Amino acid sequence: MRIIVTGGAGFIGSHTAVELLDKGHEAIIIDNLSNSSEKAIDRIEKITGKKVRFYKEDLCNKDGLLSIFEREKADCVIHFAGLKAVGESVKLPYKYYYNNIVGTLNLIDVMNKCGVKNIIFSSSATVYGTPSVVPITEECPKGICTNPYGQTKSMIEQILTDVQKADRSFNVVLLRYFNPIGAHPSGLIGENPNGIPNNLMPFITQVAIGRLSELGVFGNDYDTPDGTGVRDYIHVMDLASAHVHALKKIADGSGISIYNLGTGKGYSVLEVIKSFEQATGIKIPYSFRPRREGDIATCYASAKKAKEELGWEAKYDIIDMCRDSWNFQRLNPNGYDD
Ligand code: NAD
Ligand code: UD1
Predict the structure, then answer these.
(1) Is the bond preceding residue 180 a cis peptide, omega within 30 degrees?
(2) Which listed site, 38, 60, 275, 283, has its alpha carbon 20 to 30 Å from 97?
(3) pLDDT score at 17
(4) What's the CA-to-centroid distance between 210 and ligand 2, angstroms?
(5) Residues in the ligand 1 pocket, defined by CB under 6 Å
């Protein structure tokens, strides 16, 4: 299939582009590089030995988007493009609503005009809010998102659901990611956060490389086995492969479907630190800090539906995830910067 990958220079998009090319699909990337580097495109080509067509374009520029779609005649869109920093979204809500919502509305309009009716969307476990039960199944109701970033994910899910309801020739797959970490085993592509990382694994790798002095563990009084927050970490290569599985579903005319993408296992912050130390032999100094506002105690997926309906399940374990995250950081101490 010919796949337009929005946000394909970013962390998850670049890994998915590799997986698409490796599985014989064509990948056409659109990215405004607001949170990524064109070097990721070169690295995708290096890993796969295949050419990628790349357009530096903003989804908020509808005319530019239309001309790409008219030229490329794609079969499907995988829509990663969006801003994703939770804390920044609280400070700059307009920026987040504008970029994520307007970008998606433009995309839907252009897809309609060009007869492209298949879309896979990057959603997040954040749409569940504070889960009432774990593991979280897709039947669990959506919850209250405490920040504009989460709201945009929830709203875009609703927009795509309504679009599909009004036009049954649309096929929509909503993928709710849990906590993506890891990197391509080559160490050529990986997560490259701007500034001080907010998320746990990039923070740990930057402590390991010596860019940060110690990790602050946010809360040790949660109702969890060791008091620290429990999450469902998933290797980005597994995530990438789930998108390729979802393409098969879409090609069969799936209507609308929703899948959790997680391993189904939860690890506490202290368990992640221990796993990282075991995988790399590097000690991570840490100290306990107050809870971070908006955090929940425990969040992990039921991964059953994706297994049953997509024939996909996660293969990498927490040690693989730590090893590959570190490998990218070690080989790229300053990310994609020279
Ligand atoms: P990322 O920031 O690395 O990638 C997003 C890409 O989209 C970047 O390359 C950025 O330059 C591009 N982009 C942003 N706005 C754009 C616009 N208007 N036009 C064109 N390009 C634009 O993030 P990621 O971690 O790869 O996440 C990909 C998607 O998955 C995002 O939608 C994110 O919200 C979602 N998601 C991520 C996580 C996570 O933990 N990484 C978890 C759940 C959901
Ligand atoms: C966060 C976002 C979520 C988003 C996801 C992926 C919040 C409240 N949630 O999820 O909306 O979809 O990232 O981008 O921001 N931790 C520390 N020290 C740190 C960093 C994190 O102890 O320096 C802890 C957290 O308290 C949490 C766990 O590590 O228990 C994972 O945190 P993180 O990687 O930020 O992911 P989430 O909070 O699950």
Answers:
(1) no
(2) 38
(3) 98
(4) 21
(5) 7, 9-13, 31-36, 58-60, 80-84, 99, 103, 122, 124, 177, 180
194 close to 141: Cβ distance less than 8 angstroms: no
pLDDT given at position 19: 98
Report the pLDDT value the prediction gives residue 302, as an integer from 0 to 100. Answer: 98
What spacing in Å lies between the alpha carbon of 229 and ligand 2's midpoint?
9
Residue nearest to atom 26 of ligand 2 (CA): 218
- pLDDT tens by residue, 93-123: 999 999 999 999 999 999 999 999 999 999 9
Q: How far is the CA of 200 from the centre of ligand 2 (A)?
A: 6
Measure 8 CA to ligand 1 centroid, in angstroms. 8
Q: What is the pLDDT of residues 188-216, one digit of tens each?
A: 999 999 889 999 999 999 999 999 999 99
Please report the pLDDT score of residue 287 as a whole number: 98
93 φψ region: left (φ > 0), alpha (ψ -120 to 50), beta (else) = alpha
Strands (E), the chain: 2-6, 26-31, 53-56, 76-79, 118-124, 171-177, 179-181, 215-218, 230-231, 233-235, 256-261, 267-268, 286-289, 298-299
- CA-closest candidate to residue 41, choices 25, 61, 27: 27
Tokens 């393409």 label which residue?
247
* Residue 132 predicted with pLDDT over 90: no
Q: Which residues are catalytic?
A: 149
Which residue puts its alpha carbon closest to atom 22 of ligand 2?
217
Whether 239 and 15 have beta carbons less than 8 Å apart is answered as: yes
Q: What pLDDT, on the 0 to 100 scale, is given for residue 150?
A: 97
Atom of ligand 2 nearest to the CA of 294: 8
Cβ 108 vs Cβ 123: under 8 Å: no
